[in-house]
């Protein structure tokens, strides 16, 4: 009837055969599936059924009671330490029946069988599971979890109201006109014998259903399952504040958490519930919102496996790099020892070589950096070309250098005119 096999848990009163609560989940032998049933124990059944569009009276399904004793089989969910702690906190005595003794819990087995028989005829060809090897229930399934739960609630209400055939009534019950119906028998024994313990504090009851865990506190907050949780400064207990001031590191703290949603973890301080929320500003918390405990554990395991793989990869990378570096060092060995001679000039050459080759931006973007004559350059003209005659060159070379102290003579006017005439006879080298 579902795309995945559902798991159904029910709690039935031994004396009256009334179904007290039910839990539906996809978790096989899990703490979550079992506590789903306990959560339904404290639900107002009228409100609960109305959420599925069903209308009942308060007498049709008892609500808000805590059983005195719970008899169950040797399943791992019933034997676990977590559910044992829950029973202790709620004051429920847990009795585990011996293995392979189905007759000692025939009431619950018969109730399951009856519900399955009622479902089989209704859900034929739309996902009912059969023992036939050719069963196609996975391909024929049509109901979702809400639709299945609604049909289950109808069957439970019908069970609680149904007249039981082979139930023995006492003479007093016959005299009072009590009928052999689970809800009427429940009302009779609550009035005449003893009413079960009521759930007086619903919040305390639900807190008891949370799992216990050990977190570690430091100045950054509470750390649990590799995530970081913080609370408002006004809500942090006094010893947390003292721990922050004293800078104590990695201090264990007993906490509670709901494995259905790991956004919050809880600390009970003097009967007050302190809520620690997953800090969204922490990088390690990114993408971990609204996950279950199992999902978070699975992701942590995947990350641990990845870290191990990456560590091996880094070790190989490190070894390969060191091997190449040692090869370069071995190639650099020479019999000629270095000296500090011409160190400055050599450093300039190295800087120039690095600048012009390895870090030259122009060459990296494909621009030619060589300097050559432009093909369209204009030739030099006579106006900007001044040449000296051979006589002037010889005369200039034969001149004695003047001393600093020697006073320059006044230039001869005839000599100046002669030089001017000679410079007028210019010849273009081009």
What is the residue-averaged pLDDT? 78
By DSSP (H or I, 4+ residues per run), the number of helices equals 16
User: Tell me, what's the shape?
Assistant: elongated
Strand content: 5-15%
Unreliable stretches: 1-5, 404-408, 425-430
The secondary-structure element order is: EEHHEEHHEHHHHHEHEEEHEEEHHHHH
Total number of beta strands:
12
The largest pleated sheet is described as:
6 strands, antiparallel
Q: Please give the radius of gyration in angstroms.
A: 48 Å
| Strand ordering within the main sheet | 10-7-8-9-12-11
The percent of residues in helical segments reads: 40-55%
How is the quaternary structure best described?
A: single chain
- Given the helix and strand composition, which structural class is it? alpha+beta
Distance between the termini: 104 Å
Give structural notes.
With 430 residues, this protein is of the alpha+beta class. It is 43% helix and 14% strand. The protein contains 16 helices and twelve strands. The chain has helices at 31-42, 45-50, 76-79, 81-90, 106-122, 137-140, 145-161, 171-176, 182-192, 202-208, 238-246, 293-332, 343-358, 361-364, 390-398, 413-424; strands at residues 7-12, 19-25, 65-66, 69-72, 93-96, 197-198, 211-218, 221-224, 227-230, 251-257, 264-269, 272-278. The strands form four sheets. The protein has a six-stranded antiparallel sheet, with helices on one face. The model is unreliable at 1-5, 404-408 and 425-430 (pLDDT under 50).
């Amino acid at each position: 009837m579902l795309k995945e096999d559902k798991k159904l848990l029910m709690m039935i009163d031994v004396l009256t055969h009334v179904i007290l609560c039910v839990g539906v989940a996809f978790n096989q032998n899990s703490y979550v599936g079992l506590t789903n049933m306990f959560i339904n124990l404290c639900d107002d059944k009228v409100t609960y059924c109305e959420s599925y569009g069903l209308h009942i009276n308060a007498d049709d399904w008892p609500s808000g009671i805590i059983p005195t004793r719970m008899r169950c089989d040797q399943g791992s969910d019933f034997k676990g330490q977590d559910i044992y702690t829950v029973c202790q906190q709620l004051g429920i005595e847990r009795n585990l029946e011996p293995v392979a003794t189905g007759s000692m819990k025939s009431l619950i087995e018969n109730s399951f069988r009856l519900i399955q028989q009622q479902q089989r005829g209704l859900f034929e060809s739309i996902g009912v599971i059969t023992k036939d090897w050719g069963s196609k229930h996975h391909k024929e399934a049509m109901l979702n979890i809400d639709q299945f739960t609604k049909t289950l609630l109808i069957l439970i209400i019908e069970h609680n109201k149904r007249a039981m055939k082979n139930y023995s009534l006492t003479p007093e019950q016959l005299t009072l006109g009590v009928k052999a119906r689970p809800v009427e028998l429940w009302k009779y024994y609550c009035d005449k014998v003893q009413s079960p313990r009521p759930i007086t504090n619903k919040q305390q009851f639900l807190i008891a259903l949370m799992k216990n865990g050990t977190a570690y506190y430091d100045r950054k907050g509470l750390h649990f399952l590799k995530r970081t949780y913080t609370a408002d400064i006004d809500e942090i207990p006094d010893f947390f504040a003292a721990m922050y001031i004293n800078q104590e590191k990695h201090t264990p703290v007993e906490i509670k958490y709901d494995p259905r949603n790991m956004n919050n973890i809880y600390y009970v301080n003097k009967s007050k519930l302190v809520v620690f929320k997953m800090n969204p500003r922490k990088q390690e918390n990114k993408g971990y919102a609204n996950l279950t405990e199992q999902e978070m554990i699975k992701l942590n395991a995947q990350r641990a496996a990845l870290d191990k793989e990456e560590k091996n990869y880094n070790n190989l990378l490190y070894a390969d790099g060191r091997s190449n570096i040692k090869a370069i060092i071995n190639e650099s060995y020479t019999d000629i020892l270095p000296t500090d001679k011409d160190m400055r000039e050599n450093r300039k050459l190295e800087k120039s070589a690095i600048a012009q080759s390895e870090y030259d931006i122009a060459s990296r973007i494909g621009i030619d950096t060589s300097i050559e004559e432009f093909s369209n350059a204009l030739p030099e003209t006579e106006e900007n070309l001044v040449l000296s005659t051979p006589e002037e060159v010889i005369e200039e070379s034969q001149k004695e250098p003047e001393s600093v102290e020697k006073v320059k003579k006044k230039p001869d006017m005839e000599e100046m005119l002669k030089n001017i005439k000679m410079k007028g006879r210019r010849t273009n080298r081009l």
